[in-house]
Design goal:
mainly alpha; 20 helices; globular; 80% helix
Length: 474
């Protein structure tokens, strides 16, 4: 009788690989709490304002100031500050500091006795939002293996939209549980919980291996790599990182502004990064995020119906962001952007045409469908991709500073478009306004086709070498 072989080849990963995956999962979850706070703090104000305006006796101008203070000067200057701190003190230390600022800002908003203190607390929160929006993608990009970098970095974008969605849900739940005018204080105070979790969690993680290397801490860089790679993979990547760090020393790197003056290739990459920041916001995505209920109410829906309909846009954001993260696993970055800007342009063209139809309930829901299509293309192909590219394209020596400059421009553009939208909409109407966005996005499409490099499948060191020698792939 033949003896049967009862053993089967193991399909399990070796313990070293499993430990590496667990470490990367832990790092991603903890660091992207900064993105969750980013989303929550930008989304919670819409519900809190309903009660805050009466409780604090706010005028319409003060309401606008409370909303916009987080964007500018808060997030805009927080991005520049965060980039410099991330370069000087490290990605980890920058996120720990962000957690402290998030906590102070959240408690300041929740306890604000008057409008002035509220505005100041919102600026503090914005400072943390801007700093986290720079540092989280950098930390993830510099820590992730090449094959996981796209999905790890874009998890931060998913956490942002999840934070916004949670803000809407928590506002609704607290509205039912707490039946008095100060319910808005509880809505704002909830943000303190993930802030504490971010602070405690980051203390358990190392800094990024790239930051260790550029600071000459090569043993720490190698040790950080070993936490998420096999010994052979860590050694190979370590050699690349050390070589890139030696190039920085030979070129006498250290002061970002000096480097930009001395090296034209760095300036070119910074300009591309700034362009990406502008075109992402020039899609007009935040006109939908901030003004969707107003647009739908003006189209003929009641206020209550408009608020309910807006939930569909929030769900679309979350679902299509997940789709975008999946697609980034195998679709090139440039192709994602080209598809995205083409789709956004067509969707906004449809919006412009629908606004010409006679007012009716059907017209209102067709406008909603066109807005969802617009949001879907934006979240799937552009929102995820731009943040990823900004974390990848800048050279190591100026990465934090350059990311900070680009994100400063992003937040400033966001604030400008958000401020101007209602003025332009009143002057041109819905059709004219979205027709204008069509023209803007055609220019953005041309910019992407002409200037944006492909980064998929290349290590950060390979990209830097290609940019330095003018051979980045298109």
């Amino acid at each position: 009788m033949a003896i049967q072989n009862t053993t089967t080849p193991s399909t399990e990963q070796p313990p070293e690989a499993r430990a590496g995956r667990r470490f990367l999962t832990k790092l991603t979850v903890i660091s992207t709490l900064g993105g969750l706070l980013f989303g929550y703090d930008t989304g919670v104000i819409s519900g809190a304002l309903l009660y805050m305006r009466d409780d604090l006796g706010m005028t319409s101008v003060q309401e606008a100031a409370v909303v916009s203070a987080l964007l500018f000067p808060g997030a805009a200057f927080g991005a520049v500050f965060g980039g410099r701190v991330a370069d000087r003190l490290g990605r980890k230390s920058s996120l720990v500091l962000c957690a402290v600022i998030f906590l102070v800002g959240a408690l300041g908003c929740a306890l604000a006795p008057n409008v002035t203190i509220m505005i100041l607390a919102r600026i503090v929160l914005g400072f943390a939002v801007g700093s986290a929006s720079v540092t989280c993608p950098l930390y993830l990009a510099e820590t992730a293996p090449v094959d996981r970098r796209g999905r790890m970095v874009t998890i931060n974008e998913l956490m942002i939209v999840t934070g916004q969605f949670l803000a809407f849900v928590i506002n609704a739940v607290l509205d039912q549980l707490i039946d008095h005018a100060s319910v808005w204080r509880y809505m704002l105070a909830v943000a303190a919980i993930p802030a504490v979790a971010l602070f405690v969690g980051m203390l358990t993680l190392p800094d990024s291996p790239r930051w260790y290397a550029v600071r000459g801490r090569l043993d720490a860089a190698h040790s950080a790599l070993r936490k998420s790679r096999s010994a052979a993979e860590a050694d190979a990547e370590y050699a690349e990182i050390v070589a890139a760090a030696q190039d920085d020393v030979r070129e006498d790197k250290g002061a970002a502004l000096r480097d930009l003056r001395a090296y034209p290739w760095m300036r070119k990459i910074l300009y591309i990064g700034i362009g990406l920041a502008v075109v992402q916001q020039a899609t007009g995505i935040n006109t939908v995020n901030y003004y969707a209920p107003t647009i739908l109410e003006n189209s003929g829906l009641t206020a209550s119906a408009a608020l309910v309909a807006t939930v569909a846009i929030g769900v679309t954001l979350v679902v299509t962001t997940v789709l975008g993260i999946w697609l980034l696993g195998f679709v090139p970055r440039r192709r994602m952007l080209l598809i995205g800007f083409t789709g956004v342009t067509l969707a906004q063209g449809a919006l412009a045409l629908v606004f010409l139809l006679p007012e009716s309930t059907v017209r209102s829901y067709v406008i909603l469908a066109a807005m969802m299509l617009f949001v879907g293309f934006m979240a799937t192909f552009i929102g995820t991709c731009v943040w990823l590219l900004l974390s990848e394209i800048f050279p190591m020596a100026i990465r934090g500073f350059a990311m900070g400059v680009a994100v400063f421009v992003l937040w400033t553009t966001n604030a400008g478009i958000s401020f101007l939208f209602p003025i332009i909409e009143r002057a041109l109407g819905g059709s004219g306004t979205f027709g204008l966005f069509v023209l803007v996005n055609l220019v953005s499409l041309a910019f992407v086709a002409r200037y944006v490099p492909e980064t998929k499948g290349r290590s950060l060191e390979e990209l830097e070498s290609e940019f330095r020698h003018g051979a980045a792939a298109r």
